Hints:
- This protein has one domain.
- It is mostly helical.
- It has helices at residues 9-19, 23-37, 47-74.
- It has three helices and no strands.
Amino acid sequence: MSLKPNNLLPLLSYFEKCHEGDLLSFTQWLDKAIYMFHYLPTDSFSEMDRQNVCHVLMELKEAILKIHVEKNNCA
């Protein structure tokens, strides 16, 4: 299944509703989530799981920052 812009409407709606369109606010929350992962008990997740989850969150953060930069460059 390939993603189309319409498939992302719920995500865009979330940014607008919960972060008032402020993508940097969202990335700050992602940073906090990544930071907190390091303080979970070691038996909660394997080291590989912890690395994979943090990697996915970092990739999401980078994608959001790219959108933010491109949006501001076009404005």
